[in-house]
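Record type: monomer structure entry
Structure origin: computed from sequence
Chain ID: A
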Amino acid sequence: MKSFKVFILILLFYSFSLPESFRDQQKKYERVRAAYSEKEKGVKEMLRKKNINPDNFSMLIRIFKQERKLELWAKSFSDLQFQLIHTYDICASSGMLGPKRKEGDGQVPEGFYYIEKFNPASAFYLSLGINYPNQSDRILGVKKNLGGDIFIHGNCITIGCIPMTNDKIKEIYLLAVEAKSNGQNRIPVYIFPGIMNEEGMQLLTEKANGDNTLISFWKNLKQGYDLFEEKKLALAVKVDNMGEYIF
């Protein structure tokens, strides 16, 4: 009996001394708990339909400003390629086509980013912050006036962010929490002015109204768009000293 009590005490010691998972930390917040209560079952089923392990996956986000669409891609760690899991409507917009170059311009950034912040108690319900300004933005934007705090968030209002309804941000946020809890430290977020196939590029070129700087920037983004379309792999992205993306 004494040895059994010692065994129980050892188990309790190790259970209390184990570090909290990122998921556990996030679920301390009411809105995250609500997201899990309402959405966990459906989200896991969404992954299983694509033969993706809900307990062992990574994710990637693509955003198309002109079409106001957010694509969620995922794959099991054992898989090579990402699969499109779901496409969400972006419920509001601000600014115009083209990258964000300074604070207060109302622009949604364009380029290759990743999620760097989770805010479970956001003023916009739940929010995922991206790493704007990135290295390209710092080179090409207005120095010392680049702005920041660009989020994918709820509440369906925006000035330069990517707004979703509260119902949909619950799913996206939950999936991001799960991916990070699985060990994915950087969740890629690729933001394009629009779909950049041949037809889409022709339309974007027309909308650029002869702005060769903007057209050149979009052609650079198209290289990454085309590579992901072909390979369905997370891109290895670098930036040269002119601010151009290299893949």
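Annotation 1: The longest helix spans residues 212-231.
Annotation 2: The domain at 19-195 is CATH 2.40.440.10 (L,D-transpeptidase catalytic domain-like).
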